[in-house]
Amino acid sequence: MAGTSKSLELPQPLTLDGGGKLARATLAYETYGELDADKSNAILLCHALTGDQYVASQHPVTGKPGWWERMVGPGKPIDTDRYQVICANVIGSCMGSSGPASEAEDGEPYAMRFPVITIRDMVRALVGLLDELGIEKLHAVVGGSMGGMQALSLAANWPDLAERVLVIASTSRHSAQNIAFHELGRQAIMADPRWNGGDYYGGEAPDNGLAVARMAAHITYLSEEALTEKFGRNLQDREAKSFGFDADFQVESYLRYQGSGFTRRFDANSYLYITRAMDYFDLAEEHGGKLADAFAGTEARFCLVSFDSDWLYPTSESRHVVRALNAAGAAVSFVELSAPHGHDSFLLDVPALDRVVKGFLDG
Amino acid sequence: MTLRSDLAAIASQIEPKTRVLDIGCGDGALLANLRDTKHVDARGMEIDGSCVERCVAQGLSVVQGDANRDLADYPDKGFDYTVLSQTLQTATRPDQMLDQLLRVGRQAFVSFPNFAHWRTRSALMLGGRMPVTRAIPVSWYETPNIHHVTVKDFRELAREKDAHIEREWFFSNGKPVSGGSNWRAEFAVFQLSR
Hints:
The complex is a heterodimer.
Chain A: E1 4-9, E2 14-15, E3 21-22, E4 26-32, E5 42-46, E6 72-73, E7 78-79, E8 84-88, H1 119-133, E9 140-144, H2 146-157, E10 164-168, H3 176-191, H4 207-221, H5 224-230, H6 250-263, H7 268-280, H8 283-286, H9 291-294, E11 301-307, H10 315-327, E12 331-337, H11 351-362
Parallel strand pairs in A: 5-8, 5-9, 6-7, 9-10, 10-11, 11-12
Antiparallel strand pairs in A: 1-4, 2-3, 4-8
Helix pairs in contact in A: 1-2, 3-4, 3-7, 4-6
Chain B: H1 5-13, E1 19-23, H2 29-38, E2 41-46, H3 49-57, E3 61-64, H4 67-70, E4 79-85, H5 94-104, E5 105-113, H6 118-127, H7 151-160, E6 164-172, E7 175-176, H8 181-184, E8 187-193
Parallel strand pairs in B: 1-2, 1-4, 2-3, 4-5
Antiparallel strand pairs in B: 5-8, 6-7, 6-8
């Protein structure tokens, strides 16, 4: 379907958790469906680490369909005949919203002069966008993975904004293992000589480092079962091992393809900034160390979904949030769905997820 | 949709606009009924993911969880009523679960198949086999029922737990039974408080 592409500069400088402000914060966003006269049918959709606002419309760089076409559209589980879906590129990213590749006051790209941001900063910018659009109440905020973190952050910090909060395959905090994988990716980027302290705009970008970061991350998005099912030990376009270091195995070839494809659409510095924001995320820490306090007095209805094959943000992380919501007396649903694809299940064909999403949003 | 007789008895006692937690809520029949007819703030817990999925698809707030473990996460007296229908006999420790029901809810409803029903007794006494009856339809080796209980046993447990029995109902073949309940009731429902 066709989305409506827009861009908006927030009227006030954006206050940041790390101290300081981001002047001229710009948000690029897509909308799908029509807003009611009383502006009560908006759903804010929050994207994941390397996602963007092109939820259900063709990606301008890759030409590929939107990343959640199967979920969002007329008659789909998130039904754009009923709701207006709004999705903005998060700040720090590189698809039109302010990020390290954007121009600073001096006309040069920010690069590493861009301030370090948090998940709450991303959400603060999204709330600023909603203010500009005159939306005071969301029918729902919805997100998977990092999008789920934003949904939780919005529910905790702007408790009256969303009536429903749908969090899929996500967590309330980054674990040591999560941080470790992100650090691996960041070090791969920064070890690429072309990274050059972040100053590579106008020259050659650190594509090799970014590709390695993507390869490592991609492994965490899949289950062992999915990798085995898809590739096993099959060789790539050859009858025998080469006794060299080409991509002999299909899984190697696949990861290289994923890595190089990613560099065509994503900025390495954005990858540094956004993974940092995710690593800093700990919703309990923001609320005196007790997660239940983050949700005290909330009137919103929550729904959390995890997948049994997701080892990046496993079911135990969703249960941890559910426990806190129960302790806070919130209306919460939780289900662990069975799907073989690992963390990426939230983007793939899992009919049970469609039913849960539709039931929760329409109920 | 008509409710199962034990659930109908429970629903009849629940005041409108109260808060209810149904533990082992299955496909959410009681919760949906209470929400739609009495504007109850109805929540559920269910161990079976496909049941939870059906509940959420109806717009109910249901958490996938194991009542043996996860009831501890709920605050004291967070609900006006807790409901445990046909689940007590599957609990690891029914006595501890009863404590949790009375901690989380001001009132608790418990329903269970009565193992002292005459059909069960005669199956065991005359047949010498573990009973498989209308009320207990699954063979001993695959039944989820690990703690069979009788009406007398439950009254004794309630007494030991200082739980006051507010009301009790007995059913056989979906119809009320009065008198000789420990012999004649296939199912029992108790309303308790503490």
